[in-house]
Design goal:
The chain is mainly alpha-helical. It has helices at 12-15, 23-40, 47-55, 58-66, 72-91, 102-105, 116-120, 183-187, 194-199, 207-211, 215-227, 230-242, 248-269, 276-279, 284-287, and strands at residues 129-132, 137-139, 146-148, 153-156, 168-169, 174-175, 293-297, 303-307. It starts with 11 loop residues before the first helix and ends in a 9-residue tail after the last strand.
Amino acid sequence: MNAHDTPQNTTLADAQSPACWAAETLRDNVLAHVQELARHSENKVPAERVLLQLTQDTDFQAVLKTWNTLNGPDRVAAWKKVLGLAEHHAREILPACVQCGECCRQGSPTLYLEDVELLHKGAIPWNAVYTLRRGEPVRSPFQTELVFLLDERIKVREKPGTMECLFLDTSLSQCRIYADRPLQCRAQACWDAGPAEDLSKQPYLTRRDLFKDVELLMDVITEHDRRCRFDQLAAAFRELDATRGASVDQVLHLLAYEDHFRNFMAEKLNIPEDHMELVFGRSFAALVQVFGCRVRTEPDGTRVLVPDRDEASPSS
């Protein structure tokens, strides 16, 4: 009989016992247990981090190496040992980055004033960042509820449809710009939120820091911020709710005006399409997702507001 086979007379209860597990089943149960520990761990360390530490543990490696040679009672004892090792590594996180990539999967970094040189020297391309404007709702890594920005931020893009940083090489779980990673990435520590919280008190990078020597462009940005504020869009949606949809034209007018402003000025100033969200921030058409809607363009060119079944979360 193959070591991975289960005897034909083994009951379901027996098959659920570590005594009857194949090595592959052992690995599956280790992963499930680590994920459960991470969900209930007080320090909120990612499961990937715990699993990485566990797999590097020499005692765990010895269990894996000898598993197929163990008899039933010894496998049960070995499994109890693995449970203890997993709980130890969930509590005793090594205070060092092991480049597991989990931080990068939870969101992209916001840039600080010190990061400006990364853009100027090309380590971060200009089309890889965008602006979150003052007043917009975002998800904070330190709070569960939405917060409204008191000042603007510039943020690295995330991969479409995900929260994963643009620069994460998913296949290797490695940062593609690690040597030139932003300040927030350097302060990030999955075992200790303190450094990132301390960093949040430092000055953020803004469009004025980037474009202060281009007076005309700053004038256009200032005028766009004045005429196309997020609170105007939010007020229009409150009115839409109050009128049960009767004031939808007010929302569509704001969307059309903001769209015209950014496209007209982009053409006049030769702003590349992939730089628009850096210069003007997210469009109103993109931000309607915050209110559970999206804009659909009909065949005749008419734009209509419809419920968004795949509502996107605001950026952090």
